[in-house]
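NADH-ubiquinone oxidoreductase chain 2
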Amino acid sequence: MLFLPYYFIFWFLLGLSTILVFCSSVWFTMWLGLEINMLSFVVLLISGESMRESEAGIKYFLVQVLGSILFLFGSLLMSFWGQASSYLFGMFYLFIVVAVALKLGMGPVHFWFPGVMDGIRWMNCGLLMTWQKLGPFCILAGLKLGFMSILMFFFSTLSGLIGGFGGLNQVSLRKLLAFSSIGHLGWLTGSLLVSDLIWRVYFLMYSFLSFFLVMLLMVYGWFYLGQVFNYGWKNNLKGLVVMLMFFSLGGLPPFGGFFMKWMVFSSLLINGMWLLAFILIGGSLMNLYYYLRVTYGLGMLSSETGYWGYLTEEGNSNVLVMLGILLGMFGMFFSSLLMFLIG
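Structure:
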């Protein structure tokens, strides 16, 4: 385990490197920011005492190095020979987009993401699902040109499908959230194709919901579905909060996750991307299915009185209903406020 001062140094470098990528307009500076970000996060991953964390850190390091090599190779070739012909320009851009997709863990280059997620702590899971995606997406936002848009359409489609199908047979909550994150990568890439504003709102809402859910699971000490089933409704309000967060992340109305997915879905339809819109909706429905598996364990199994027993107790009904309404309306209000402030 790292000493506390060194731990904060690597946290600082993690944030600074992402800001460097965000503010840069030169390929080399972007690559340098990604490298600093990767090395800082690897140190945080292997700072634990578990062998699984060290294994996950090494796996993350190797994959990110491969992505960095592709990114540097494509950017250097484009700088020297990219102007020679449009064919070479497109091929070198292809290297960069594939490198960014590999760093993000998008389908079909997602092979490393669930395994790394399953071997690290919840706090690092939250960072890997949210903050670590910001830098590569800032690069991807500048590549929406002609052939690259078609390639991003391809990655978005596969990410939506893999994120839906991949989580159906998972019993590990960390792997389940990993495939959920892959599905949301499809939505984020689709939103990037139609509007930068919608992408920013979606990313902020997704980051808020994911990190808050990860913090809840870390506090409760849940890692597998069996732990959720054994928990039942021993503490009904805690279970309700987790259930509502899963519903919101899955896009169930009237929660905030539904509003952000509705923005992307309607924008895709307006721009004529019907196929992508309905593929993402199909993947989202599969996401909701395995979210319901988790919430079913909270609401029905291993409970002496069951969900409806708690609702009929005096005073509990008003608390549960009011909490559900407030969380749902807060999500919708928060999304609308973000649209207003960022726009």
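Residues 141-342 form one domain.
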